[in-house]
Design a protein that fits this description.
10 helices, Arc Repressor Mutant, subunit A, transcription, GntR_C, DNA-binding transcription factor activity, Four Helix Bundle (Hemerythrin (Met), subunit A), transcription regulation
C-alpha cells in the first residue's frame, strides 16, 4: 500500500524513461506520464509535485521540457503553482480514463486540439459563406449519421471525422483538409478518448455533443460565417474541457 505523503511533503512521481527520437515530443510524454498518475490516483488532489530540478533529474530532461509540461498541466486545471511553496495537484479527471490504453498520449492530443480550434473555426466560417447545396447536404448527412451512432452507443472517431472533414471540404480551401489529414493520428486519438467518455457518461453529455454539432450545421445552413466560427470553436473547446472532465458528470 502506497503511503500518502504528509502535508507539505513532496509526493513520489514514478519516472518511466522518456523515448527520445520518437514522434511524440518529450514535453508531451512528460505531460502524459503526470496526467496518467493523477488519473490513476497515484497522485491525489493536494499532493505536491517534485521541484522542476527534481523532475529534470528523474526523467533525464531539460528544464524547458519540464516547464512546458507543467505549464500545460496548469492550463488544463490539473495542477496549481503556489509561489514559494511549489506545484500541487488541484483536480483529478474521471478515474475511468485510466482504462484507456493511450491515456499517456493525451498531451499530444490536446496540443493538436489547440491547432484545430483556430483552423476549424475559420474553416467553418468559410464553409458557411461558400458551401454549395450539395456540400450542405453532405454535412447534414454526416451529422445525422453521427447522431444516430451516438444514440446507439456505437459512435466512432471515423463518424466524427467525416462531419469535420465535410466542413473543411466545404470551405473551398483544400489546405484546411490537408492540415487536418496531417494531424489525423492525434485527432483520432483525441476523439477515441472523448467519445469513450461520452459513451460511458451521462445522456446529457452525449446530448451536448449532438447539440454542438447541430449548432454548427445550422449556422452553415443559414450562411452565417461568424456564428459558424464561434459554434465550431465552442464545440472544440468543450471537447477539450470534457477530456479533463471538469464537468464531473
Amino acid at each position: 500500500m502506497t503511503r500518502k505523503p504528509a502535508v507539505g511533503e513532496t509526493a513520489p512521481v514514478e519516472a518511466i524513461p522518456l523515448e527520445r527520437g520518437q514522434r511524440v515530443r518529450l514535453a508531451d510524454q512528460l505531460y502524459g506520464q503526470i496526467f496518467e498518475q493523477i488519473v490513476s490516483g497515484r497522485l491525489n488532489v493536494g499532493d505536491k509535485l517534485p521541484s522542476e530540478h527534481e523532475i529534470c533529474d528523474r526523467f533525464g530532461v531539460s528544464r524547458p521540457v519540464v516547464r512546458e509540461a507543467l505549464l500545460r498541466l496548469r492550463a488544463d486545471g490539473l495542477v496549481t503553482a503556489h509561489q514559494g511553496l511549489g506545484t500541487f495537484v488541484s483536480h483529478q479527471p474521471a478515474p475511468r480514463l485510466k482504462t484507456f490504453p493511450d491515456v499517456q498520449n493525451v498531451g499530444a492530443y490536446l496540443r493538436a486540439q489547440e491547432v484545430r480550434v483556430a483552423l476549424e473555426g475559420d474553416a467553418a466560417r468559410l464553409a458557411a459563406m461558400r458551401r454549395s447545396d450539395e456540400q450542405l447536404h453532405k454535412i447534414g448527412q454526416a451529422h445525422e449519421a453521427f447522431v444516430a451512432a451516438l444514440a446507439a452507443g456505437q459512435v466512432s472517431p471515423e463518424a466524427d471525422l467525416v462531419f469535420h472533414a465535410s466542413i473543411a471540404e466545404a470551405s473551398g480551401n483544400d489546405f484546411y483538409l490537408g492540415v487536418l489529414e496531417s494531424i489525423h493520428e492525434a485527432i483520432s486519438g483525441f476523439m477515441r478518448l472523448t467519445l469513450s467518455l461520452t459513451r460511458t457518461g451521462s445522456r446529457q453529455r452525449a446530448q451536448r455533443v449532438a447539440d454542438e454539432h447541430a449548432a454548427i450545421l445550422a449556422a452553415i445552413r443559414e450562411q452565417d460565417g461568424e456564428r459558424a466560427r464561434v459554434a465550431m470553436q465552442f464545440h472544440l473547446g468543450q471537447a477539450r474541457y470534457r477530456l479533463v472532465d471538469r464537468e464531473r458528470d
